[in-house]
Amino acid sequence: xxxxxxxxxxxxxxxxxxxxxxxxxxxxxxxxxxxxxxxxxxxxxxxxxxxxxxxxxxxxxxxxxxxxxxxxxxxxxxxxxxxxxxxxxxxxxxxxxxxxxxxxxxxxxxxxxxxxxxxxxxxxxxxxxxxxxxxxxxxxxxxxxxxxxxxxxxxxxxxxxxxxxxxxxxxxxxxxxxxxxxxxxxxxxxxxxxxxxxxxxxxxxxxxxxxxxxxxxxxxxxxxxxxxxxxxxxxxxxxxxxxxxxxxxxxx
Length: 252
Ligand SMILES: Nc1nc2c(ncn2[C@@H]2O[C@H](COP(=O)(O)OP(=O)(O)O)[C@@H](O)[C@H]2O)c(=O)[nH]1
Ligand SMILES: [Mg+2]
Known about the structure:
- The protein is α/β, with parallel strands linked by helices.
- The chain has a single domain (about 5-250), classed as P-loop containing nucleotide triphosphate hydrolases (Rossmann fold), CATH 3.40.50.
- About 40% of the residues lie in helices and about 15% in strands.
- The chain has seven helices and seven strands.
- It has helices at about 5-30, 40-50, 90-95, 140-155, 175-185, 200-215, 240-250, and strands spanning about 60-65, 80-85, 115-120, 125-130, 160-165, 190-195, 225.
- It has a seven-stranded mixed beta sheet with strand order 1-3-4-2-5-6-7, sandwiched between helices.
- The radius of gyration is 27 Å and the shape is globular.
- The chain binds guanosine-5'-diphosphate and magnesium ion.
- Guanosine-5'-diphosphate binds next to helix 3.
């Protein structure tokens, strides 16, 4: 006798339910029990999400380029450090990464003749350009450096942000002003970063910032930071604000 279609349907449903129970049991049985997140786990997740998209502890050296022929790819956002020789570019890299061995800090202006790249936690690359405007090197070398700098901005199309570093203690040089004018005319986004603030009192820093704003014609959306990268200044003033702003810029 042919099976009642109604009974047949019930049987199929039963088999399906049974299979689901068995599979579910096997999955539950073999998978590791999920650990309840601790308070620290939750806080770490929150810190990662809210405060820092870039893990600055993971900045690492990438490569050194002596010419614009062997530059790294442009897949990641790029942040460029520009400024006079000795202004504190390499020290800033070290302060960002809280690692004094990341970039070579030099007492002698004009030592760095190449572009030095750092990987920022796989999220961006940081290019430390040779400093402009120093007098101690031979004229040939000096010309070479500025050529490399000029070429860089000409060939590199994917620059996301320039950090223009200026020593807070001195009036901006003609080179600083030239660089700023170039950034304004090229329409490149930039932050002004005033360095070596630990060498002045808070009041002097304020006075110098006022002076800078009078003599520098910076873009309205350019953000301004007053920082210290000095190892003898554990607070590293301004560095955390800069870190946050860079993260925001890279991940926006
Ligand atoms: N006190 C103080 N010295 C700094 C600071 N940044 C850099 N320097 C010093 O300035 C000199 C040049 O620094 P460096 O980072 O090599 O400059 P770069 O040529 O622009 O890369 C070194 O002697 C650093 O120790 C800072 O924030 N505070
Ligand atoms: Mg340097």
